Amino acid sequence: xxxxxxxxxxxxxxxxxxxxxxxxxxxxxxxxxxxxxxxxxxxxxxxxxxxxxxxxxxxxxxxxxxxxxxxxxxxxxxxxxxxxxxxxxxxxxxxxxxxxxxxxxxxxxxxxxxxxxxxxxxxxxxxxxxxxxxxxxxxxxxxxxxxxxxxxxxxxxxxxxxxxxxxxxxxxxxxxxxxxxxxxxxxxxxxxxxxxxxxxxxxxxxxxxxxxxxxxxxxxxxxxxxxxxxxxxxxxxxxxxxxxxxxxxxxxxxxxxxxxxxxxxxxxxxxxxxxxxxxxxxxxxxxxxxxxxxxxxxxxxxxxxxxxxxxxxxxxxxxxxxxxxxxxxxxxxxxxxxxxxxxxxxxxxxxxxxxxxxxxxxxxxxxxxxxxxxxxxxxxxxxxxxxxxxxxxxxxxxxxxxxxxxxxxxxxxxxx
Length: 416
Prior knowledge:
The chain has 19 helices and ten strands. The protein is an alpha/beta fold. Helix 16 (290-310) links the parallel strand 9 and strand 10. Helix 8 packs across helix 19 (383-412) and helix 12 packs across helix 14. The protein is globular and about 70 Å long. The mean pLDDT is 88.
């Protein structure tokens, strides 16, 4: 009788929640309003002198190019805050492309796919993923085309990147697209109406406030991927679903991006394995606390056997792995950080730069942005922690960029 009453109560609550639920599109739009997107766009503008310097020309030459584009209707008028003209990132990209200023893809032909993973929760995976993605995309001299794929059903990354949503249709996640052929839903409706898989995938990828940084979001019902995979395994004896992320998503849009970052949840399941199978590099964040390192070291010890057992190609796709110390407080965490470095050795497995612990990351999360989107004048957090957070992420990303360049060079020369 008690169990019956509990089930009745749950059914009543379930019905009530269904009636009050909002669509994914409405959900993300609501989150976007909290983020103050126009403020973020304004924070990344450049004055005319700064813009000219970024393009490597004098102000008058830059002005001539801008006015020429304006006359041809190739660019929208800039923001004017007398006496300054402010150029947004989108305008800077347009002008630099018009001036034929080289970017990363002009001299690199390798798409890096990085899986940020650790089975231990609270290690800063999502914060590192979104911060590094922004840091890769922001430098105007590279204009690296960056995509972040959220495979964590918590789905928080879409809030940090303030997606520029214009569609009036519901949104699809990576899991929706991977399982599209196996279930009824929006994906199958699009297919039946004549849209191709590639069209559906590309329309599901959302733009952000940084023009060359895009996101494929996640939602809570993405958990179903692993249960589908296990049911398929029970029937066939094979983990075919593990191939889906690579074959149905990464391979389709690989040429559109220079770097694809995949954020996964703190689990070991087929959805996580699909990220391992799709990537060519792995970042393993670890917080320098004893329990966190104990859990992470166990994860690393078991990782080779797990990969060989669960990936169809036994991990031949993974060319590099780096452990990254996150949430690092030099005053409190130096001893355990040194232990981590000693245990792993000071060689190829460790990132030399750490991601510092800072209240700036908390402030960014509360304001639905990354630490690189905040300016001191906003007073969202004290200046010193903000500067430390931004400096640590930029240094970390410079090191990562160097690693990517080396990996590409070795791959092109057949040494990987």
